Amino acid sequence: MVDLVSQYEKIKPTVLPLIEDIMSKAQFINGPEVAEFKNDLQEYLDVKHVIPCANGTDALQISLMSLGLKPGDEVITPSFTYIATTEVIALLGLRPVFVEVDPNTFCIDPESLSAALTSRTKAIVPVHLYGQSANMEAIMSFAKANNLYVVEDNAQAIGSDYIFSSGKRQKTGYYWRYWMHFLLSF
Fold it and tell me: How far apart are CA 152 and CA 154, in angstroms?
């Protein structure tokens, strides 16, 4: 279904010299290329902060850890997602609460949030999939009304636009206030 070898062959002449340059300098963590990438991504997403991580699982874990959640706290997440989303929730002693997805996008169905809400619910982890954004306007409205954090899993849709009912566009992974901004995997 996905031919990664052919994809690599197409970009190899561009990518290989860059990898060799980084390897020769051994500046893997916060080296100049990472700093440049971070700055470029901040500008592209129109956000104040991007924190590069080793991978998306680490990004989700750091995000959830920063919220001060306690073991047994509940985190609402879609039933259709990559295992890392749920793995991190469970690893931190939190309880994943699965909700249905919108059959048109396979992203979290905001209509399913109310039924999943309990007094132990502390956060929502919507997962943006296949380059599509979850319905963030409805999710953020629900989160704000119920004082919940939102940590976006943006691994499969970075750069996607969410279009609000007003017509305003915003890149996925943007939201901040009652919620935590996603951390980018690098």
Answer: 6
Cα(65)–Cα(61) distance, integer angstroms: 6
What global pTM score does this model have? 0.84
Residue 58 C-alpha from the chain's centroid = 11
pLDDT tens string, the chain, 186 residues long: the values are: 689 999 999 999 999 999 899 899 988 788 888 899 899 988 888 888 888 888 888 889 998 999 999 999 999 999 999 899 999 999 999 999 999 999 999 999 999 999 999 999 999 999 999 989 999 999 999 999 999 999 999 888 888 888 889 999 888 877 543 333 333 333
Instruction: Classify domain 50-171 by CATH number.
Output: 3.40.640.10
φ, ψ of residue 91 to 5 degrees: the values are: -55, -35
Residue 86, CA atoms < 13 Å, CB-side half-sphere: 11
d(CA 171, CA 44): 9
Cα gap 176→178, rounded to integer Å: 6
